[in-house]
Structure formats: C-alpha cells, structure tokens
What we know:
CATH superfamily of the largest domain: Metal-dependent hydrolases
Number of strands: 23
Distance between the termini: 29 Å
CATH architecture of the largest domain: Alpha-Beta Barrel
CATH topology of the largest domain: TIM Barrel
Shape: globular
CATH class of the largest domain: Alpha Beta
Helix content: 10-25%
Number of helices: 10
Strand content: 25-35%
Number of domains: 2
Amino acid sequence: MLAQAICGARLFTGSAFLDHHAVVVSSGKVDRVCPENDLDSSIPRLPLPGGILAPGFIDLQVNGGGGVLFNNAPTVASLETMSAAHRTGGTTALLPTVITDETAVRERALEAVTSAISDGLDCVLGVHFEGPFLDNKRRGVHSETQVRPINDEDIAWLQSISNCRVMLTLAPEHVAPGQIEELARSGIIVCAGHSGGSYEQTNAAIAEGLSGFTHLFNAMSPLGGRNPGMVGAALASTSCWCGIIVDGFHVHPANVSLAFRALPRGKLYLVSDSMATVGATEKSFELYGETIEEKDGRLVNHAGRLAGSAISLIDAVRTAHRDARIPLEECLRMASLYPAEFIGEAVRRGRIEAGYRADLVHFDEQFRVLNTWVGGEQRPHNTE
C-alpha cells in the first residue's frame, strides 16, 4: 500500500491535540505524524474538510447492529454486518457480546468469532460472554430460565479456548472461592456485572483476579452510606476498569461525572451495549421470543425495562462531553486508548503514532462521523 498523508483536520493522537499536522499512513499502519509543512511533496495528500481525526473507537460490549443480534445469528456474516454498522459510529474494533443463552449459542458464537479472526476480520478482537453466570434478581432482560451458577464443566470449556481473547461477565457472589482466580490465571478477562454482590464479596473477587465491571451502576448493588455495595467497590478500586453506558438513559450524567472523578485516570471506558437497531432502519428486534422496541432513543421490552442501548460510541463520546462535562480528550481516550489498555491492545491500537495500526475516525463539530480507516482502508460516511 502506497504511503498517503491525511491532513486538514485537527489531530488527536491519544496524547494531545495537534493543529496543522498530518498523519502519514503506509501498509495499514501509521508511518509518522508530522507538521504539514514538513511533508515531502512526493507523498500524495488526502485533505480533510476540518473536523477532528482521532484513534478509532474500541467497543468492548456490542450485542448487535445493522439489524442483527449476535445471539440470534452467531455467524461470521453477522459479525461483518455488526462491524460495518458500528463503523459508521466511529468504532473500528469491537468485542461481539453474547448475552445469557444456551450452551450451543455460546459455542456457535465462539466458532464464528474464531473463524472471523482467522479470515482476517481484524476489527473483531475476541468475544465477550455476558452471562449466564449472573444473579437472577439483577438479570435485567437476560433469560430467567438460562441464568445459573458456573460449574466445573463451564470453567474447563472456557479454559480450553486458546485462539481467541475472552471476556466473561459474572456475578461474583455466585461463584465458589478460587474459581475467579482459576479463570483469570487462564487469561480470561473476568468482569463483575448483573450482580447483587456486597462490597466485601466484590473485593474478595478483585483479590482473586477480577479486573473489570460491566456497565457500571446498572444491574449491580448500589452505593449506600453504610453498604458501599458493588458500585462502591468499583469506585474504590485502583486496579479495575469500569465500562459505562453513556446514552442519557442508563446512567445520570452526574453519576458519569462522579465515576470519572473517582476512578484513577484511564480506568473508566465507554461501551455502547448496543443491540440490533444500531445502523439499521428497523427499530425493533426479537430477544428470547419477545419484541424489543426503540422508543424515543431507548430500547425497552414490553414491561418498559431497558434492554441494551441504541447508540454507537460516537454518541457516547458526545453525551459524555456535553452532558457529563468530561473534557473531549478524555472522552476520546475513554472510547479508544482505555479499552485498548484494558484488553492488552494498547501496543497497536488507541493512539496515532508510528507503528500503530491506522485505525482512525474523522468527525465534525456535530459529532457526525465523516470517515473511518481500518488498517489504513478508508470508508467515507455521512456523504449526503
């Protein structure tokens, strides 16, 4: 692939904003970042009409998109559809997520993910199993009949996965002592979520190797004055990462701001928790045989309970910046660098600097995604 200089936009490298700089891309990677005036005249230029050029977003909780729910169709074709839908929202890499379901669904999902990765769909980073090892009282829309404790057979199957990154969300109060340590030692990224676990139980899980929290504040024991709960343990942790859904519905902006100020820098990251409607014209889908509808930007079941989100990560960046008053550079890190650091991808993704993948997002002042690059391959968006 010939070298090309992308210029004309304000550049955010993952570390700082730079004006009047260009990104030279070659063979799918960033060759260098330099002042536009220093560019050799022999290098072709791609001029952008202003806006911001930033590292491509990384979404660690993607249930669906483009009209597809991964649980309902765990295939390589679904992963291609989901990836294309989320790319229009600035996401250049993702963890497809399987919520609570039958064992056969998880097995087919794993097969699809490993096939997609081996086929070169390098925007797929692994798989996120959200359940079924959750707390029934805090299961949300997860299937009541499928939620259950983890057993030795489950652990053996998870440990047998050697060719794919795995994130697992579970309720730590429903696992036996030593099980989280066993999973973490095998390289599985263990997160807590859909849990009524106490502050003490959560800290015991952290001591065993629990390293993250799935959609902070939602479906977990809340922060109380005398009972800090799981939220309190998460906010007090200095070692764990916390994903958060910033769509204006799941978490109040004041709590988003609170989490940002309470956690060590780099430990809070944005997730979409998106369902099938993202990037699709159809605003309803089936989950466990029940119709989930998007109403006024919210996804709800027949009882009015939240059922995932209808956003992509550019929406989360905008809402975190405008409503939670988080500095834009931090919002961009929360959508790229910090999730990359959490899953061990920060040596190749999350920054615009020499040697990193040329995974980029270009958006305007209204937070409309205009272009993305995945491995240096450009795709224009919002061309109307």
